[in-house]
Design a protein that fits this description.
The protein is mainly alpha-helical. Helices cover 72% and strands 0% of the residues.
Length: 561
């Protein structure tokens, strides 16, 4: 008996799970036959403790094979045996070499199974069966996550606090407590004893402060702290990923895209936030970079949503929408509350013309994370393209409500109002100017504001705004718009200069080409085509839309949140 058990244990230690299934199956059958008939008792006889551990090993082998239903059954069998244990009749020294898997470990395995099977209530139940003293930090963290997902905030806070009491360096537990509204001072108290014992603790306190600023949506302060933090931990993967994510949440998409590309090119095994980069690459129609990202993610597990999301974005970009929908469905099946997967599904269904379905997925995305800009951005574009100004204003109003006044939300509100009546257009200028003041590097509100004031023949004011913006930024469209305004006031040489710069920055800028041609005609003594200027002004106030986005109805002020 002892020799057989030791050999079975060795199979488990060496991860020979296929062999383990066969041998344990035979051993348990043999034991059952011996117990039932009383034959061969001297040949093979396991104690209840051995049987318990064999069931655990057997369940482990099925778990590793991803046969979660069988694994669940045998883990439950093991727990049943554990409850039926009696004081052994054998002397205790005979069991001194028998190491039993703890009940907490078995229940944690069951929790992981229920999580994979999308059964959160069963997962909570199996962990709650452990007494408070038996719960490890890992189990308390798991319970905290489950409680938070189910909206049981008080229970989640209690569990996360228990994690910090045992492991004061658990930054994730601290971050989750911040999300649940626990004050930073209370969190710091739980961590203080350990932090005071660390001589060089500034880096850790700094990181916690950054997480608090992110939780408070204080994006600019967080970015400033991260830049300082980079000096302490240079070229750190987590710092870069956090920095890109803050840029993304703040609506600074170009900066987020650049940082994520630097990160993922240098560290191809990093998966976190690749789905967000895929969205940005789709938004920018960057097919080459998106193809490279999909190839990079091809070697990772198919059990996570990110590879499916990236490939779905590539399918949308290459006009294979049906394939995109199938891929997104796989991502949502793996993680139903994946924000980016729901955004992608909304985009794909919008392209198919299934507007009601598209609206449902955008609403789901906002319900899962009402502080992210993507769904608001996509909904706003869709409403404006369909001419639904009231719906666009309602979407922008929601963004202000849930995210607050950031350059992006102020711009969205100003953009929506700029498509309304004269009174709304006047109000739009106020929001656009606030957006520019909040972030001088954010060029989109400048485009819209210049379009509005140029239509009122305030070309000198437009020139002043564009020249101020060009001190910190240089885009093809900024130079093209400045050329338009200069042409309007008769400064043809300067207009030609800026059209040329615009074309150097972006040779495909058709409006800059047309402006340059019109300027050359005028300088040659030919008449200026006045319709060109009018069209250029119209273009500057048009929302930049991707093909395939239609209107949604967002008349419900809460948008289902």
């Amino acid at each position: 008996m002892a020799k057989v058990y030791e050999e079975i244990k060795k199979l488990h230690t060496e991860n020979l799970f296929d062999d383990l299934k066969i041998v344990i199956s035979l051993a348990l059958s043999r034991h059952a036959n011996v117990s039932l008939n009383g034959n061969g008792c001297n040949v093979m006889s396991f104690t209840p403790y051995h049987i318990y551990q064999l069931h655990v090993y057997y369940a482990d082998s099925w778990y590793e094979s991803q046969d979660y239903t069988r694994a669940e059954r045998h883990y439950k069998d093991a727990l049943g045996l554990k409850r039926a244990f009696r004081r052994p009749s054998e002397p205790s020294e005979k069991l001194t070499n028998l190491e039993l898997t703890s009940e907490a470990t078995v229940r944690y395995k069951l929790y992981k199974i229920y999580s994979k099977l999308k059964q959160p209530k069963s997962a909570i139940s199996v962990l709650e069966a452990l007494s408070t003293k038996e719960r490890t930090p890992g189990i308390n963290m798991a319970l905290g996550d489950l409680y938070r997902e189910e909206g049981m905030d008080r229970s989640a806070i209690t569990s996360y606090k228990e994690v910090l009491r045992c492991c004061p360096l658990s930054v994730e537990a601290a971050r989750n407590l911040m999300k649940l509204g626990v004050q930073r001072l209370n969190i710091a108290t739980l961590m203080l004893n350990t932090l005071q014992s660390i001589n060089d603790e500034d880096w850790l306190i700094g990181w916690i402060n950054i997480q608090q600023q992110i939780n408070d949506s204080d994006w600019m302060s967080a970015l400033g702290k991260i830049r300082s933090f980079e000096k302490i931990c240079p070229r750190n993967v987590d710092v870069w990923n956090t920095q890109a994510d803050v840029h993304y949440m703040y609506g600074q998409y170009p900066q987020a895209k650049l940082r994520w590309q630097q990160l993922f090119d240098g560290h191809p095994l990093v998966i976190k936030n690749t789905d967000k980069l895929a969205y940005l690459l789709l938004k920018d129609k960057d097919q080459v970079a998106l193809s490279r990202l999909c190839t990079q993610l091809g070697d990772v597990s198919s059990d996570i949503p990110e590879p499916w999301i990236a490939n779905s974005a590539h399918c949308i970009l290459t006009n294979r929408n049906s394939d995109a929908v199938n891929l997104i469905d796989k991502a949502i099946a793996l993680e139903p509350k994946s924000y980016t997967a729901n955004i992608m599904k909304g985009i794909a269904m919008n392209i198919k013309g299934a507007l009601a379905v598209s609206k449902k997925y955008f609403r789901d995305a906002l319900r899962y994370c009402p502080t992210r800009l993507d769904a608001y951005h996509e909904s706003l574009k869709s409403a404006l393209k369909g001419g639904h100004v009231k719906d666009a204003i309602a979407v922008a109003d929601l963004a202000l409500k849930y995210i607050g006044q950031t350059p992006s939300t102020l711009y969205m509100y100003g953009k929506a109002l700029s498509h309304g009546d004269q009174k709304q257009k006047s109000k739009a200028k106020v929001f656009l100017e606030k957006s520019i003041q909040a972030d001088s590097s954010f060029v989109y509100p400048v485009y819209t504001l210049v379009g509005l004031i140029s239509k009122q023949d305030k070309h000198r004011k437009a020139i002043h705004i564009l020249e101020s913006c060009l001190k910190d930024n240089s885009t093809s469209k900024l130079h093209q718009l400045l050329g338009n305004s200069l042409l309007e006031v008769g400064e043809r040489a300067r207009a030609m200069h800026h059209y040329n710069i615009a074309l150097n920055l972006d040779p495909s800028n058709k409006k800059a080409k047309e402006g340059l041609e019109q300027t050359e005609k005028k300088m040659d003594g030919n008449s200026l085509d006045e319709s060109f200027i009018a069209q250029s002004l119209d273009q500057s106030v048009e929302v930049e839309l991707n093909d395939g986005f239609d209107a949604l109805s967002w008349s419900d002020p809460e948008v289902g949140i």
